[in-house]
Structure formats: C-alpha cells, structure tokens
Specification:
The complex is a heterodimer of chains A (about 80) and B (about 400). Chain A is mainly α. Chain A is built from five helices and no strands.
C-alpha cells in the first residue's frame, strides 16, 4: 500500500472537511494540532473513513481520538503495518 | 410593550441575490420563475421553479464549511453575513449570551442527503459523509449561524411549513423581550434535487403550467397552483434602545405584532383560522384594521385557498378596503423562506412608499372583493403592513410590520 505523504494528507483533509481560509497553502502543517487547523472530531472521522478506503488502514475511533497532529496520524498510517487489515 | 426593530437584511431570491437587486427586480416585475435545471425535469409533472441561478457559495461561505453544508445552509450563511454587513454589526462585538439565532426551516437539506444516501445504497455505509448527521437537519441553519458567529444566547429552529418564517421572527421578538440584545432571524430554504422536487410535487398543489408568465397566478380566475421556489431572507433584529445606542445606520421598521393560529380539523365545519391570526397580530400591535396600509398575502394560488384568504382579508377589512400585494408571484413559494421575504417586501414598501405588483394580465374575480396590486407597482405611503402566511397542515401566522415612528 502507498505511503501517505503530508501533501496527500492535506489534500484529503481539504476534500473531506475544507480548510481555514486564513491558512497559508505553503505552510507546514505536520506539527500543528488538528484543533489549530480547525478540524473537529467529525472532520477526523471523515478523514479516517477516506484513509480506510484509499490506504487500507483502519483506525478505530478510540485511537483516532488520541491523534492530535497530522504527524501522529502519518506515523500511524505509514508506520504500523499491524494496523492494516 | 416589547419592541423589535429590523436593522439588517440579507436576501437570496430567485429574481436577485442581495436586498437591492431583489427589490429592484421585484418592482420592475422581473420574474425568477423558469425551467428547473440541475437534473432532467422533463419526466416530472411540473417543470417550473423559482430557482436561484446566480449564487456562488464560495464568495461568502468559508471553505472550511463547504464540505459539511447543504445548499440551504450556504444560503443561510450567505444571507446572514449580508445581514450583519447591512446592520454594520461585527458579531464579535455582541456578547455571546446576548445574541440569539431563531431561524425557520421546513424541508431540511435534501440535496446533501440525497447525494449521501445514493452513496449508502450504491457504495456502502463507509462512503457516507459523517456530516450527514446534521447537514440534513431543520436546525442546521440555526446551529451553523450560531457556531460561526459565536452567538450562544436563546436560539431555536421553527418548523411550520410556509408559515414558519413568521413564527421565527415572532420568536426572535420574544427572545429580545427575554433579554437578548440582537437576534438573527428569518429563514431560507432549498430542495431542488430530484428527491426534493418529488416531495414538492406530492402536495398536489404545484402548478403544471409551461409558461413562466402564467404559472403562478395568485387570486387569478385561472389560478392553477403555485411554483416552488428556493431562497429567503435573514434579518437582524434588535431592541430599539440597543440599535440607537450603537448608532445603527438603518432601522427598516418595527416588528409590531405577531400571532399564530391552527386550523380546525378538516370536516369540523368550523372556519379556517387565518383571520383570527391576523386579528390577534393586530391586537398585539395595538392597531385596528383601519390602521393597516397594505396586506402581503400568503397567495397560495389554488382557488379554494385563495377564496379562504380573500374571505379572511375582506372579513377583517371589508371589500376593496386595503391594497393587497403578492410579490411571491415573481419568485414562487419559498417554504420557510417565503414569509421572511414578504416581511422584507413590507419593510421596503414602508421605506420606499411602493407596493410590488403581480404580473399584468392577472384577472381577479370581482366577487373576491380584494384590491390586488396588478401590472404596475403602486406608489402609496405605507406605514403599517400586515403579512399573512399559511403552512400546509393548518398553520396560520400573521405579522404586523410598521415604520419605526409610526
């Protein structure tokens, strides 16, 4: 399965939950919190459903609630083959 | 006596987006009724609608909110932002618990729901947007406005089909009475995907006419039903002293009286309750029928309902005693958005001293006994207007709108 890049993650986020109009398109969002980026728990559920379909990585809801930044999500998706079905 | 003044207006209408564009179009008789686009409407029994064609959500709706909003909510946010601009209020300056949101809605988010339910049945539950959980909901517009502007005071969503818009504004007035300083009110609607269109047609009262100029003719001898429309209006209402203190640049008028009634059960033999709603609204405003300069009619455009409305009007005012305006004839019936748009028309009629006309060629049976404004707008001073609204299922609402210093 393909690696999820920061760029692809950001594109997915914009697709499923939009993006704050004030955010610089070139800004590095990897270590900002989802809250700072304006994404709530529903936005993350949307994102998790898309990642499940496109990257084959199922993230359970409890685990999802612990993910606070794009980096923590990228680490989970790319770094833990055990999470894959 | 509690008072509420309208200090800001935002309009999305089939014949114009924005208060002044819509009003200019209405006075020049420009119709927003046309063949419905967006899907193949040829297979349906009715094809004409009051569709908003020049709306660009991205102009005003934050990108962040696009994936989670139905068209109706984008209308609401757009009109709400316009209303705040018009009122020259920065919502950030409103104490969060002193600002409320009371909007009406009667259809919910059809387009969004239809798309997501297609995914459910076509692809599977994991493809359905989590935002469907609220995007379809009647209270969604109220909620999204409240969240976006940080208004956490008394708020509500009112549902009473085409009458609900007046109920929302009446409730806003009550909210001011209870201590709020500013309330966002009114309502907008949109349900023009195939599923929503089918729901509209299920009433059996939608016009099947092919000619947009003859499709929706309230009080005409050949009235053959209404044309569904989308859009509506959002108002900012404030307590008069609050508007004065902050130096509000505009006070369009006052919401002076309001009442709602419910029709008796069909077959009971008792009369419909529209007239009673109008009487109660006038009493609430402390006015007599003779004080009213104009009536903005519900304008159902089915002979039985038209007759019931003219009976209410002539029963209250006497025959040919008050000019009756039906600007809906140019945009269709907008469900929860219809009555707020009529309240806007009443406020602008007060401002400009002119009543919008129904299209020329409308022939009102003499025995109706109403003085309908037909063909050309009528220039006449308006200081007090009565707005009537009926909702399918027995809802009646009436509102008295007056000049600020009437």
């Amino acid at each position: 399965m393909a690696q999820l890049t920061t760029q692809a993650l950001r594109a997915l986020l914009i697709e499923v939950a939009g993006e704050d109009d004030g955010l610089d398109p070139s800004a590095d969002i990897t270590d900002l919190t989802f809250e700072e980026l304006g994404y709530d728990s529903l936005a993350l559920m949307e994102l998790s459903a898309r990642i499940g379909r496109e990257y084959g990585v199922e993230i359970d809801d409890d685990r999802l609630a612990d993910l606070t930044t794009p980096r923590s999500l990228l680490d989970l998706v790319n770094g833990s083959p055990a999470e894959a079905p | 006596m509690s008072r509420a003044v309208v200090t800001g207006i935002g309009v999305i209408a089939p014949n114009g987006v924005g208060v002044e564009d819509h009003w200019a179009a209405t006075l020049s008789g420009e119709t927003g009724i046309r063949t419905l686009t967006g899907f193949d409407v040829d297979r349906y029994s009715a094809r004409l609608a009051g569709q908003v064609v020049d709306f660009v959500a991205e102009e005003r709706v934050p990108r962040r909110l696009l994936p989670q909003t139905d068209r109706m909510t984008r209308f609401a946010l757009h009109a709400m932002l316009s209303a705040f601009e018009d009122a020259r209020v920065d919502p950030a300056d409103v104490d969060e618990y002193e600002g409320g949101v009371t909007l009406s809605n009667s259809c919910g988010g059809f387009e969004f729901s239809h798309r997501e339910l297609n995914k459910l049945w076509g692809q599977g539950p994991e493809f359905v947007s989590a935002y469907l959980s609220f995007a379809w909901f009647y209270a969604c517009n109220t909620g999204q406005v409240s969240i976006m502007q940080g208004l956490r005071g008394p708020s509500a969503a009112l549902v009473a089909e085409q009458a609900g818009g007046l109920d929302a504004i009446g409730y806003a007035r009550r909210t001011l009475r209870r201590g709020a300083k500013l309330v966002v009110t009114g309502g907008v609607e949109s349900a023009f995907d195939p599923w929503g269109w089918t729901a509209h047609l299920s009433t059996g009262r939608v016009s099947r006419a092919a000619d947009p100029a003859r499709a929706y003719l309230p009080f005409d001898a050949e009235a053959g039903g209404y044309v569904p429309g989308e859009g509506g209006a959002i108002l900012i209402v404030e307590r008069p002293e609050q508007a004065r203190e902050r130096g509000a640049p505009r006070r369009y008028g006052e919401i002076a009286g309001y009442a709602a009634t419910f029709d008796p059960r069909p077959g009971s033999g008792r009369p419909p309750a529209l007239r009673r709603a109008a009487e109660l609204a006038l009493a609430d405003a402390g006015l007599a029928a003779a004080d009213v300069d104009a009536v903005f009619a519900d304008a159902a455009a089915s002979p039985d309902l038209d007759r019931a409305e003219v009976e209410a009007i002539t029963g209250l005012f006497g025959p040919f005693a008050v000019p009756v305006s039906a600007p809906k004839s140019l945009v269709g019936r907008l469900y929860a958005g219809g009555a707020p748009l009529d309240v806007v028309a009443a406020l602008l009629a007060i401002r400009d001293g002119v009543l919008p006309a129904v299209p020329g060629g409308t022939r009102v049976p003499r025995e109706y006994g109403i003085d309908l404004v037909v063909g050309e707008p009528r220039h006449v001073p308006v200081r007090r207007a009565l707005v009537l609204a009926r909702g399918r299922g027995g809802f009646n609402s009436a509102m008295v709108v007056t000049a600020v210093d009437h």
